[in-house]
Specification:
The structure is a single chain. With 115 residues, the protein is mainly α. The chain has one domain. It is built from four helices and two strands; from the N terminus they run αβαβαα. The protein has helices spanning 12-16, 34-45, 76-97, 102-105; strands at residues 28-32, 54-58. The chain has a two-stranded parallel sheet with strand order 1-2. The longest helix has 22 residues, at 76-97. The radius of gyration is 17 Å and the shape is flat. 11% of the residues are buried.
């Protein structure tokens, strides 16, 4: 599973959602950068984007890998590549150990709540 491994890159949150039974790819809008996000939100007020059901919005261009807390000289492209390499490594690691990510770690825990 890729849960949470690619969330810091643009589109990472929506790519790790297990949404196939409730959403289609066309229902998801991915946007990055404060100015573009503000335009999208204004468009929602005007009804321009009413067909979207899920917003994957990242304030920083390129995602969190380009945020103010990032240190070092790597480009956004290089950081993205490294996140994806990590995901691919983790896939192999989990497969070798017979793990299934969140499904194994949270097995038997009931997350339902009633209010």
């Amino acid at each position: 599973n890729d849960y949470t491994k690619v969330y810091p890159i643009s589109g990472g949150l929506s790519s790790t959602l297990n949404y196939s039974d409730i959403l289609k790819k066309k229902d998801i809008l991915v946007m990055e950068g404060l100015n573009d996000i503000m335009k999208i939100l204004e468009g929602f007020k005007d009804g321009m984007y009413k067909n979207y059901k899920f917003l994957d919005l990242l304030n920083c261009k390129g995602g969190c890998i380009n945020g103010p807390g990032m240190i070092g000289e790597r480009s956004v492209k290089e950081r993205r590549k490294r996140v994806i390499q990590y995901r691919d490594y983790a896939r192999r690691y989990e497969k070798d150990l017979g793990k299934a990510g969140v499904k194994v770690d949270a097995e038997g825990i009931d997350f339902r709540r009633k209010f």
